[in-house]
DNA sequence: TCCACTTCGCAAACACTGTTCGCAATATAG
DNA sequence: CTATATTGCGAACAGTGTTTGCGAAGTGGA
């Protein structure tokens, strides 16, 4: 019996009380998977490959994990242990931006993480600790509970999104998109886009290309202040 | 020769000038793939499956598309044709929120779209048209070109993210995460989280559960105003 | 000490997947 | 009518996640 489904992996006991003791552990398997993913990307993390890295057979992994998706959840949460939580300074925005800086660093160390955060947000022990710290930072902020939790979700997603574009997906993809953009502009349609790129392309001193780290910080600041402020008035 | 790589699929000619004329078209293949994805999800879109829907063999598809990823890009851009662009009213936020409403509708019609938008943002003809309209709406807005394009990217991503959580990924996933959250709170740690959920859970009349459509609209409005306003002052 | 009992390890098999190859069929241009 | 160019596609290749079945390896109780 492969443990009750519909429960996240963190709610299923790791080791059994009786019987032959396991030769590995979830932590060990997760670490092996992370090593592979760091070096060769997420798609290299196959059950056979991870098992081989541990010197065992693929089928053995299913004693520790229900399926590959469980393993991905474990990886996603595991790197959350790399956060270092400092006591809040009193200025929540500054503190959250510092947290964002750490997120950026972690996402850079593990280029596969952005994909997992965007496609299967999982809440494991480390994710919970991060959320708790996020809320601690906002403890005296007047926003509603729902708003704070939404802010957390968007904080994660924004970081992931930004780093995904800056990293692997970016290099090839971005300049292929740019190639098509140029061709499309050459046809004369897309007036506004043409205007904008013409105005931006020349060496406008006030419009110099910014450091990605600065752009990330600026966008994160804008989004967080937008989310955690009095509601905008709409019709 | 499979056409020059490093170019997006929209820059590669579809039909050849000479030789036996093709029996299908990219549009036809894309439509078949979308039908399958709408009914059975993205993972059901295999080359064999799409080919079978067209009454042909899997290998034939490679005459129209370099690989499966190309097909996904085509799908992603194709549904962009469902947007209906109205002339700007003069209030850019209202107009962009209306665009967001359309995005929401499209994402609901095609539950697989969120995943593609988040993981492989592609800029095809329809994506370009959307971007052009987005910029047209912001034509008289004083923000920089870079800021407007960033706003567009985040507009797409936010819509996708929100709808992904509301749709497929949500049902099972959300209540599994919730199950773990409850268990974790029962241990006594996670002080802030506990406080927040206690305060929010009782039938607080001012804090009633909002319609997802309203939440989406509110979040989108906050993010867009945050991104397209004078910069917040930081240290 | 022995033995049921429980769990682990894992080779082999299954049902898939994306993609390539090679060749026959089919159209067009000259 | 003849090159020539392109399409259609069965078959094969190298992988994938996962299940099954059974032997090996420990543990708790008698």
Question: What does this protein look like?
Answer:
The structure is a homodimer of 235-residue chains. Chain A is 59% helix and 0% strand. By secondary structure, the first copy, chain A, is an all-alpha fold. In chain A, α1 (26-40) crosses α2. The mean pLDDT of chain A is 90. Chains A and B meet through α4, α5, α6, α7 and α8 of A and α4, α5, α6, α7 and α8 of B. Chain A binds a DNA duplex (30 and 30 nucleotides) through α2.
Task: Please specify the SSE layout and strand pairing.
The structure is a homodimer of 235-residue chains.
Chain A (H helix, E strand, L loop, with lengths): L25 H15 L6 H7 L14 H11 L13 H18 L3 H7 L5 H13 L7 H22 L1 H19 L4 H10 L11 H16 L8
Helix pairs in contact in A: 1-2, 1-3, 4-7, 4-10, 5-7, 7-10
The structure holds a DNA duplex (30 and 30 nucleotides).
What oligomeric state do the depicted chains represent?
A: homodimer
Shape of chain A: flat
Average pLDDT value of chain A?
Answer: 90
The interface involving the most residues is between: A-B, 71 and 71 residues
Structural class by helix and strand composition of chain A: mainly alpha
Number of strands of chain A: 0
Low-pLDDT parts of chain A are none
Count the DSSP helices of chain A: 10
| H-E order of chain A | HHHHHHHHHH
Strand content of chain A: under 5%
- What summary fits the major beta sheet of chain A? none
Helix content of chain A: 55-70%
CA radius of gyration of chain A is 22 Å
Separation, N- and C-terminal Cα atoms of chain A: 56 Å
């Amino acid at each position: 019996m492969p443990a009750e489904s519909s429960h996240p992996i963190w709610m299923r006991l790791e080791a059994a009380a009786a019987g032959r003791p396991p030769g590995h552990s979830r932590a060990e398997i997760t670490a092996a998977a992370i090593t592979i993913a760091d070096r060769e990307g997420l798609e290299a993390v196959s059950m056979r490959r991870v098992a081989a890295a541990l010197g065992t057979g693929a089928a053995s992994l299913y004693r520790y994990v229900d399926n590959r998706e469980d393993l991905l959840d474990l990886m996603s949460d595991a790197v959350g242990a790399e956060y270092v939580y400092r006591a809040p300074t009193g200025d929540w925005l500054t503190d959250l931006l510092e947290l964002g800086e750490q997120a950026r660093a972690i996402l850079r160390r593990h280029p596969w993480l952005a994909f997992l955060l965007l496609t299967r947000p999982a809440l494991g022990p480390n994710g919970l600790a991060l959320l708790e710290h996020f809320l601690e930072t906002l403890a005296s902020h007047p926003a509603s509970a729902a708003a704070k939790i939404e802010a957390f979700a968007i904080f994660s997603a924004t970081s992931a999104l930004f780093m995904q574009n800056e990293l692997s997906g970016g290099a090839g993809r971005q300049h292929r998109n740019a190639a098509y953009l140029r061709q499309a502009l050459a046809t004369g349609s897309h007036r506004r886009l043409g205007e904008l790129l013409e105005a931006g392309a020349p060496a406008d001193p006030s419009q110099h290309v910014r450091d990605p780290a600065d752009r990330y910080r600026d966008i994160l600041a804008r989004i967080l202040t937008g989310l955690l402020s009095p509601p905008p008035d709409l019709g």
